[in-house]
Structure formats: structure tokens, C-alpha cells
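Task: complex structure prediction.
Instruction: return C-alpha cells for all chains below.
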Amino acid sequence: MNAISRLATAVSLAYLLPLTALAGEVEVLHWWTSGGEKRAVDTLQKLIEDQGHTWKDFAVAGGGGEAAMTVLKTRAVSGNPPAAAQIKGPDIQEWGELGLLADLDDVAKQQQWDTLLPPQVIEVMQFGGHYVAVPVNVHRVNWLWINPEVFAKAGATAPTTLDEFFVAADKLKAAGFMPLAHGGQPWQDSTVFEDLAFAVLGPEDFSKAFVDLDESVLTSAKMVEVFAALQKLHGYVDANAAGRDWNSATAMVINGKAGMQIMGDWAKSEWTAAGKVAGKDYQCLPFPGTQGSFAYNIDSLAMFKLSDAENRKAQEDLARTIMAPEFQQFFNQSKGSIPVRTDMDMSSFDACAQQSMLDFKEAAASGGLQPSLAHGMAASSYVQGAVFDVVTNFFNDPEADPKKAAQQLAAAIQAVQ
Ligand code: BGC
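Output:
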């Protein structure tokens, strides 16, 4: 090796060394395993790897994340939590109380999270006044997805009220289509229940019921009406729904077998992955009766304390990357959600996302912005689990009494408080 090439080697090594020294590994637990979700999470993996870090994917399949949370608890109990995990809403406080979460204040200060995030989001991401989680996006739960071609064939019109919803469902049924694509899993049953509750109760009583856990609203005549609507809706779901994944249900609407799906806007990730265009190949409608209101579900990655300095650096870079505009745009365009930053230019987003952002801002100003119960934003996972049990038992029993179900709901919630 001559002197020049020795120098060149030394220079390139010198250049590489600090880079390698700062490169760490981030293990990220999430449940984004459908085709569309995977496309979204791949964008994050790439941005992390581009910074020289190693991405260790810890994906636990199962919509709604119940399975992922069980696996996370096992890992945490054995003293080996991942660097980051998708933990949402009030659960972040519980993990914070265990003393396991890392402080992200330095990154937050540097990127001015306090001025970029809505106050409702800041409150959820902090424990004891310190940032311990980074918000990824804002999903809206109260959506109805329809296939307009199927609607046209059946002579049905896009519903704006619950009554119109059932009229459309009847037309679809009469024309030989599956009216409503649904997956019979507790979190999906409760997603539908929550949307019905949002429509029938309105945002104020929805909040009294699922945030304040107010017994008088939980057992009210309106809540009985919600269960009655859920029972009616069961008549439009096919016999093979039990256990079906949400994305398989979405596929049935995409391929024209079914006319509608009630689901949060992660369903859009499947339409996008299938190359379908919002407003043309499919329509996103606010769930009938909930126009102007917004049931939010914010994905967030909570960070666990790490001892290794390089991994800690990678973890901070992960948080920084997630809040950066580039990630907020690309990830959310694939995921179906809207950016959590309030300063983003929405012109490159599709019609559903633009509508969602407008409605989010309007609902925030009017009191229509409410946390999703079915997606862990409104109450603890214990309350959520109690609601899932009552709702799914009711949904699967055609003889069940709506009045009794409302009583059971209140009692089940009471028992876990
Ligand atoms: C999560 C979404 C996810 C959906 C389906 C929701 O609870 O917030 O990110 O796409 O579940 O698994």
C-alpha cells in the first residue's frame, strides 16, 4: 500500500469511525402487519437505517394491538423491554408509573414539540411533565368506507344518518351484495359500537359515558338505543365474520363483494396499497350521524429507558425522525392517518386526509373532538377490556336484551375501577 492509499484508507476510516460509534440499534414493537400498514412502517425503518442505525422489527400481529400489549408485558416483566413500543393514551401513564420510560425532553425542546402539537396530544405524551412518548399520527375512528360502484349497482345512496345507513344496507342486501364487511373480533365489534354510540349520544354524552364513566349515561335510554342499533346492524353481517381480520373485511369492499365497512382510517392504508383513489374508487364518509365530530386515535411510540449510549442515541434519533415533516408526510400517506403536527401542508394528501384534517380542527374548536374508547384513548385498558366483553357477548347473541346490556356495561365498568 503506498502512502497515498494509506492516507486515503486512514481518512475513510476516520470518517467511518464516529459514524459507527454513534450507530445503535432500535427495537420497535408495533402491530402494523397488514399490507398497507407494513408499507407505512417500512418508511420509518428506512429513515432510521439511512442514519446508520439498525432497525430491529418487533411486529406482533393482531389488529387493535391486544396481542402486542400482552407480549410487551412479558418482555417488560423479564427486564428486557424494547427501545420503543406502540403504547397509547392513558396506558402511557401506567407505564410511566412503573418508572420504565425514558425522558425525551431534549429532543422535544430541540424540535419545539410544545408549539407543534395540539394540547390534547401533549398531555397524553407526557408523564410527570416530561415527554416519554412521541406521537406518530392522528387516526379518525368514525368513518364509513363505501364502494361507490357497488352502491350504484344496488341503487343505494351514501348515507348521512343512521336511518339512511339501514336503507342503504337493505338495498345492498336486496341486490345480492354483502352490505357490511365486518370482522368478528372484540376490538372490531367495539369499534362499530363506539361509532354507533358517537352518533346516538353525541360528543358530550359520549364523553360522559366513556371518559367520565358516568353511570347515568351508561344506563340511559340513549345507550339502550345504541345497543338496539348494534343488534339491528348484526343482521347485515355475513355468517363467516367470526375471527376475520379487519384488512380481510376491507378487501371485501375493495373487490366489490361488500358495499361498506365501519372502520378507522387505517382501512385506507389497504385501499392505498391496492392503488385505489380516494373519492373515485372509494368514498370515506364520516360515520352517519357523526358529521363534524371526530373520535381520535393517536398512535404513539413510548420509549423505554436504555443503558447503552449508542442505543440511546438511536432511540432519540427515532423520536426526532418521527416528528420530522418528511416522516409525517410519507408515513401518514401510507397509513391512512393525518400528521400530528399542526403545521403541515396537506396539499399532497388525498381527499379523505384533507377532510380529516379540516374536521379535526373544527371538532377541536367545537367540542366534537373525543377520544376513542375502542382504541385505548378514552379510558384504561381495564375499562376498555370490560366494554369489549359486554359488547362482543351482546353482538353474538341475537336474543340479547339491549336494556340489560346497558346495565351490564355500567356494572362491568364499575367492577374494574
Ligand atoms: C391502531 C392502528 C392500527 C389499527 C389496526 C389501531 O388500534 O391505532 O395504528 O392500524 O389498530 O391494527
